Amino acid sequence: MHYRTLGRTGIKVSPYCLGAMMFGAIGNPDHDDSVRIIHRALDAGINFVDTADAYSRGESEEIVGKALKGGRRDNVVLATKAHLPMGDDPNQRGNSRRWLVRALENSLRRLGTDHVDLFQIHRPDPDTDVEETLSALTDLVRAGKVRAVGTSSFPASDIVEAQWVAERRGLTRFRTEQPTYSILNRGIEREVLPVCERYGMGTLVYSPLAGGLLTGRYRKDGQPDTHRSAFGFKHLTDEHRLDTVEQLVRLAEKAGLPLTHLAMAFAITHPGVTSAIIGPRTMAHLDDLLAGAETVLSDEILDEIDELVPPGTDVGTLDMAYAPPAVQRTALRRRALEERTAA
Fold first, then answer.
1. Which of 78, 177, 240, 339 could form a disulfide with 335 if both were Cys (CB 3.0 to 4.6 A apart)?
2. What is the C-alpha separation between 50 and 32, in angstroms, rounded?
3. Mean pLDDT of 162-170
4. Model pTM above 0.70
């Protein structure tokens, strides 16, 4: 395994990051099996593990904590996240100091450790001043509970604003970003990746297999994978995306590669990408991905991918992708009816 530096933190991480979202109730509820999968990944040279408090409401963190007992913790770059709801209380979510301090304490308890190497803000929070968030994170870093802080799904403009605020206020700055990135979703190539490179931020990209579409288990006329289909994801049945998948299947066959290996190799080829997150639910899923860890794509193959999905473009929308309030809230993109009538 060839290790890369996570931004300018000096921390060395593997190009594959083990994502723990599938460990727990929403994926693999068997704790012992999940622990075996984690150990297999670590034995293969992966030293980067990413989880979040919201994954199966803390169960994922508990499983990761079990897997890292017995001396393995010191050799792992451990990342977790906070922001998403962890209860019915309206203050058990978001990016406020009140919640982040409590959320981290809960995560540390579940993970069975006294610190995390990377604490990430899972989503932007328009209701919280970024200075409030950075101030709280700075105190957590100074307390020794966090080594570095990062973001997830932040638009480029939010990343730049946070960097400016950190510089002007003398606060800890975000060192990483976790955006979605795959052959089918290349939008971050336009602004997010260049901005991260400009500020020396590492990136750990999620859904490099496009939410399951680039596994080969979803074909235009095939039987869908029952596990992911049960979640009702629209991106799995998007005709445009499925048409592109068929073209990519043919390209992978031409290159003599499984589709998963083509997709993962593409994700870690971009110079702005530090690691790509893999989220195996079974040992077979992990073994397939590990078998392609040394795959390198030729310029000819990358050129053909560019022809199918031009750089900086998306083929449809990934259901899990972040949509900012300006897009989600009708009131923010339509003038009031009285204004329209008066005009």
1. 339
2. 18
3. 98
4. yes
